[in-house]
Amino acid sequence: MNTPLRIEASALAVLWQLSARAREAPSEQTLGFVVVNETLSLVPYRQAAWWRAPAPLPGAVAAVSGLPQSDPGAPYVQWLGEVCRALERRAQAGSNEPSASQADQQRGAGEAGQNAAQSSAPAQSADAASPVWPYAFTADSLPAALAAEWDAWWPTHALWVPLVDRLGRSFGGVVFAREQPWTPVDEALLAELARVWSHALAAFSPRASWSERARLALRAGKYRRRVLIAAACALVVPVPLTVLAPAEVTPKDPFVVRAPLDGVIDRVFAQPNQRVAAGTPLFALDSTALASRYAVANKNYATAQEEYRQTAQLAVTDDKDRLDMALRKGKLDQSAVELDYTAHELARVRVSAPRAGVAVFSDPNDWNGKAVSIGEKVMLLADPAHVELTAYVPAADNVDVVPGASVTLYPKSSPFASYEARIDTVAYRAEPTPDGVVAYRVKATFTGRVKPPLGVMGTARIHGHWVPLVYYLLRRPLASARQWLGW
């Protein structure tokens, strides 16, 4: 059974007062003055100093007992800083963990009772034990270069009190020196007070970053080894290599409505995305020039027909007119061909839908009055139930997309909907898109029973082959580094 520490009630009162003073300190400088000077009322010592090491080393001596402010250039302060750095390195290496007797003191400090004259107070309980314990040392515990100057600055015995918060962040430590050896009661009182100092210093320090928290979580020990092993195993877990690409629902096998002849579009009858039946007028070209040509051809045909009739009548009595009749017949046939061609062209001015579908084109105002050449595409006739997915995979994100790979479309207009598709074709070369990005055009057929509406735009996730997680994470950085370094 462990023997509990017996602590005087007056010491507990002083401990309570020093704790309150530390928590009420308005600044870090005031707290440092309280730590190195007012602690004398609780534990006797000759010299004390607070060494601040927010991380990483080397740190600095922030407060020295008996001085309003420490001078970094003073020989004593410089030697003291080297001593504290050596003690901090020893603490980080784990060599300042409590020994078996000190661990017993920690557990025993929380089990004592007290009558009216004396009171026992827990320095640390087993459940809320501090990760470190004060470490008593002498000149023999330091490197030879530092131990050689010990007698010039310090008495025989010293005590190092690490300041570490509950997250494991180190705020440095407080070092005390005196002639008498340090007792377990002194260590217990200072250990409890160190927890209060660390809590107060945490209020003045900036919040720990993610990198600092990760470094503290991965400090030496079994926990770090387990985390590293788990991370190494996670990096080799196979995951599907995916790429995101802009996509659009486009018509499959649409009918292209082209300009039947050269001219100017006079009027567009259909509206964008309008359902039209077969034979519905779509647009008309300006017929002014063709109507004039038709009138001239009609007049020429009538003239040729009259000349041929007169020549045929004269040819009955005159052989000369019989020869001229053949010439008039040729002109009549030529006029008839011109009239028929002009009439046919004039009939083609009005373009109708050859089949039912949805008219796919831009704003009608963009086409009214626009000059078009023969064969130029004006609009598409698409079947709303016969659609496909068109995605544009940037050349930098190409992951060896092959026909048969699965694709998932996430529409912009419906954040909770998704549609599955399967790749049919992949362009063999990348081409500039309307956005100016060089990309491969990918066509895919929807495999689900429900298909998205025509014209829906969104983002397509293309699923490639399976790769280790480390390759998935480092593929783009490695590709960029290789292009930049040229290897």
TrEMBL record:
- State the residue spans of region: Disordered: 91-124
Q: Where in the cell is it found?
A: Cell envelope
Task: Keywords in alphabetical order, please.
Answer: Coiled coil
Q: Which InterPro entries match?
A: UPF0194_transport
UniProt superkingdom: Bacteria
- In which residue ranges is the amino acid composition biased (Polar residues)? 93-105
Gene Ontology cellular-component terms for this entry are:
cell envelope
Can the keyword Coiled coil be found in this entry's annotation? yes
- According to the record, the segments passing through the membrane are none
The identity of this protein, by name, is Secretion protein HylD
Organism of derivation: Pandoraea thiooxydans
